[in-house]
Structures are given as C-alpha cells and as structure tokens.
C-alpha cells in the first residue's frame, strides 16, 4: 500500500516524489498559477498584479509584464504541494547567480530572488541567492559550452552569455523534409539551434516536447502593431495556412 502522508510526515522544501515538491511556507513565495496541488495550514494566494499594489517589494522582485498575470504570491504558514502535469520537478539553489530559464517551466521561486524578463522570447531570468523549482519533460542534464541546443529541448542556462540563433542552411536546402518544413513556416532542431559560447552551464530536458507557453501569443500580439497593413495581412495568411496544414 502507498504511504499516506500528513503535515508532519511531508518533507520540508524537498520532493515528495519525482513529480511533486513540498514547500515549507513561512512567509511568501512566488508560484505559477495552477502549480498548487494542495496545502496544509494558513495559506493565502494573491495575484501578483493585485499584491504588488500594496507591497512594493513584489513589484521590485517581479519585473516581467508579459508573465505577471500568470503568477501569484503564496503567503502564510504551512506546507504547499506543487506539481506540473506529471512532469519531473526539481529544486535548484542559486548562490549569487544569474540563471535564465524557459518561463513556462518555472513553477515557483523564493522572494530572495529577482525575476526579470529575458531578451530571449519565452524565457525569464532569475538573479540573486535563493531557491526555485522548475519542471522538465524527463530528467535534466547539464552541459558546458560551446554547445548548440534544440530550442524545444533547451530548459535554460546559467552564468553564460545569451545564445545566438544558428540556422543550418544546408539542412534547409538539401533536406526535402527541411525544405518542406521551412515552406510551411515550421522549424526543428535540425534547422535552427541556439548557439552557446563562453563559460557557464546549460540545462537540457531529455525530450523535445515543449509545453505551450500562453505568454508567447501575448508577446507576438504586442509586436504586431509594428507591422504595416500589408505585412499584417501577409502574416495572417501564413498563419491560416500553417493552422490548416497542422490540423
């Protein structure tokens, strides 16, 4: 029979199993909406957009307008269980560090860390000393640059420069599959990679299956105002053709 857990037997700031993490809450934590599975104790959840209006430190610690509506502040005392649709969950400790991570895989972080919006779309950066919990589709592996990563397998990078984008023109021109994908507006790790140089650590999940990031649509929509009417019409036609092809 499986072990039945209670507030006394649950771990403090550790995994319950590979897919569930238990936060020993004593104050505040930032949590992604939907990450909370259950909790013991006196715990309250407030939207970051609402809480920052009365607590200036929240606005100072969370600086990402694209993702702000996807986060809450958990405050109080107790134990909070978090998960992410059966994905692997791991806790990481930053020590005066600088780590950029795929925004949709970041589940929670302590208020000792500051969150900034990365210049790389779909990623956020954590700065300082503290703990954070992130999900991955399969176990995480760590590699050192120089290195090129499939964008869907890339989870994040620490203490190294932001990557540049490498396009494999030979794959696109000589591969029938690559040429077809390019014509349809698709990309793969064989055609486009993130190119890392310098020193640091790169985090990879052991799968190319990426979670859908709802903030990407908001980010793209915010940029469409820069398009002319003709460009917007052309983009719309391409998106319709892509949706029809993938349906």
Automatic annotation (TrEMBL):
SUPFAM superfamilies: TRAP-like (SSF51219). InterPro entries: AIM24, AIM24_sf, Trp_RNA-bd_attenuator-like_dom. It comes from the Bacteria. This is Uncharacterized protein (AIM24 family). The lineage of its organism: Bacteria, Bacillati, Actinomycetota, Actinomycetes, Geodermatophilales. PANTHER family: ALTERED INHERITANCE OF MITOCHONDRIA PROTEIN 24, MITOCHONDRIAL.
């Amino acid at each position: 029979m499986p072990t039945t857990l209670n507030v006394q037997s649950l771990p403090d700031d550790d995994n319950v199993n590979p897919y569930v993490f238990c936060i020993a809450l004593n104050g505040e934590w930032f949590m992604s909406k939907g990450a909370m599975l259950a909790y013991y104790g006196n715990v309250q959840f407030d939207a970051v957009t609402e809480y920052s209006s009365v607590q200036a430190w929240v606005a100072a610690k969370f600086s990402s307008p694209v993702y702000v509506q996807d986060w809450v502040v958990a405050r109080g005392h107790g134990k909070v269980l978090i998960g992410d649709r059966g994905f692997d969950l791991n806790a990481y400790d930053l020590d005066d560090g600088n780590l950029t991570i795929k925004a949709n895989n970041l589940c929670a972080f302590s208020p000792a860390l500051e969150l900034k919006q990365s210049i790389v779309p779909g990623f956020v950066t954590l700065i300082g000393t503290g703990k954070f919990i992130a999900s991955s589709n399969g176990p995480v592996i760590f590699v050192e640059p120089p290195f090129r990563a499939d964008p869907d397998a890339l989870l994040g990078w620490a203490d190294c420069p932001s990557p540049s984008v490498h396009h494999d023109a030979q794959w696109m021109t000589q591969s029938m599959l690559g040429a077809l994908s390019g014509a349809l507006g698709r990309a793969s790790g064989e055609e486009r990679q993130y190119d890392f140089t310098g020193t640091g650590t790169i985090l990879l999940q052991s799968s190319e299956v990426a979670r859908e990031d709802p903030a990407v649509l908001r980010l793209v929509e915010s940029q469409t105002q820069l398009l002319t009417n003709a460009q917007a019409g052309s983009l719309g036609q391409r998106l319709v053709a892509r949706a029809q092809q993938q349906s």
